[in-house]
Structure formats: structure tokens, C-alpha cells
Amino acid sequence: MDQNIKNFIGRIQLGDMQVHDNMAVIPLFLDSNGGPSYITLKEALDMGTFTVTEVSKGGSVPELKAIN
């Protein structure tokens, strides 16, 4: 797992569980403002961290393969 993601997940704090009937929700809080650093699609493509290809050699019109 990417170190930036590990660092971000490590900052998440769990709030008190809230239950209503058969549903439970646990709020997530960050210990500080801000979130992970994002990059644009162009930056990811240029860096090679995101690729888009055909699903097979013959291709398929409505489908693409994306690797992040």
C-alpha cells in the first residue's frame, strides 16, 4: 500500500456508533484539516501510475481496462 495512503488512514479516528433499527453508522474523523494529496488524471498518466487499455487484444466498444 502507498505510504501516503497508510499515513492518511492512520490519522482517521472513529466516532461513537449510532444505531437505528437494523442500521449502524460509525462516523470517521480526521485529527486535522485536509485530506490526502490528489493528482490529476494527466499527472497519473504521465507518471505511469494509472493506465487505460483495451480489455483484450480484440477490444470491446463499451469496455476499457483501468489500472490504478
What does this structure look like?
The structure is a single chain. With 68 residues, the protein is α+β, with helices and mostly antiparallel strands. It has two domains: 35 residues, no CATH class; 31 residues, no CATH class. The chain has two helices and six strands; from the N terminus they run H-E-E-E-E-H-E-E. Strands 1-4 form a two-stranded antiparallel sheet. Strands 2-3 form a two-stranded antiparallel sheet. The longest helix has 8 residues. The radius of gyration is 19 Å and the shape is flat. The relative contact order is 0.14.
What structural keywords apply?
two-stranded antiparallel ribbon; 26% strand; 2 domains; alpha+beta; 68 residues; flat
Write a brief caption for the model.
This protein has 68 residues and is α+β, with helices and mostly antiparallel strands. 22% of the residues lie in helices and 26% in strands.
SSE layout and pairings?
Blueprint: H1 3-10, E1 12-14, E2 18-20, E3 23-25, E4 28-30, H2 41-47, E5 51-53, E6 65-67
